[in-house]
Amino acid sequence: MCPPLATRSLPASVPRAAWPSRWTSSATATARRSKTVVVAFLPFGRAQQKGTVGLPGALFRVRRPLLAVLATMLLVAGGCVAEESPQRPPGGMDGTGDCAPPSGLAVESATVSYVNDGDTVRLSNGDRVRLVGIDTPEIGRDGAADEPYAREAQQALRALLAESENRVRVIDATEGEDRYGRRLSYLYLPDGRSIQAQLLDRGMAMAVFVAPNLELADCLLTRERAARDDDLGIWSLSAYDPGLPSANGIPEQVQGAAIVRGRVESVGESRRNIWINLEGRVAVRVDKADLERFPGWDFEALEGETLRARGWIVHHSNRYQDWFIPVDSAHALERLN
């Protein structure tokens, strides 16, 4: 038996028999009926176990002359199942409307041993994992107060994990580690539901966009909009919707990611960056190297308009601004005019 390809082995893994069909890819079974061979392929495949009923899949018939080709395919598979996410368009939804696993990235089984907050967990092997693509309110540290909905987000994540006895599927993003040594990953429950999407559905998180980890950007933003429209969780707070007014500056207690809105007073340019200067000495910084991720955007035309931006606040005072938000994807900007 050859090992799964592009995977890691963790101590507490989900048995193959419990995997949803979407996680694997292999041909399943052949059966002879007179002069016709019936071949069943499960959705995205998995080896059918003796004594079990195969999942519904694409069932088709082939004539005997093709039997040799099919036999070769099965031999190449050799009983090995590549534990790799199925090939789907990046950021797309699957047939259930959930955020499909990103294509071409390795998948592994794991068990969560501790929930730090709404977007960070520790695995049983000691790895710390930051849920990529979302940000939840911060739990207060060193005597600081919790941000609104911080504990609710933590509890929502715990409740989701409890549904599977803390078992998850882990898919590391394209850039798989942050500056703190945490893995940047998408988490899925064994039944295939995206944990990031589930938190967004409940209004416990906002979507954030940091290249190159934009695999699910479109889908996560869609899930967030539904919660925002219903004023769920954090979206009942003005700091999130419509966002912090830049005219008042950024409150000192704001740390990490935020949503800021304001009128564009000017648009400037330096050797490396484009600077969108909002009222209140708040700027949005776009690296020129990232301009391909802003198709159709004419930044100079933004002057006088109201812009909403999201990202991590950087406190940096100079002659032009006191705060700026670096953005590297058009997903992080919204014209409100």
From TrEMBL:
<keyword id="KW-0378">Hydrolase</keyword>
<dbReference type="GO" id="GO:0004519">
    <property type="term" value="F:endonuclease activity"/>
</dbReference>
<feature type="domain" description="TNase-like">
    <location>
        <begin position="106"/>
        <end position="237"/>
    </location>
</feature>
<keyword id="KW-0540">Nuclease</keyword>
<dbReference type="GO" id="GO:0016787">
    <property type="term" value="F:hydrolase activity"/>
</dbReference>
<dbReference type="InterPro" id="IPR016071">
    <property type="entry name" value="Staphylococal_nuclease_OB-fold"/>
</dbReference>
<protein>
    <submittedName>
        <fullName>Nuclease</fullName>
    </submittedName>
</protein>
<keyword id="KW-0255">Endonuclease</keyword>
<dbReference type="InterPro" id="IPR035437">
    <property type="entry name" value="SNase_OB-fold_sf"/>
</dbReference>
<dbReference type="Pfam" id="PF00565">
    <property type="entry name" value="SNase"/>
</dbReference>
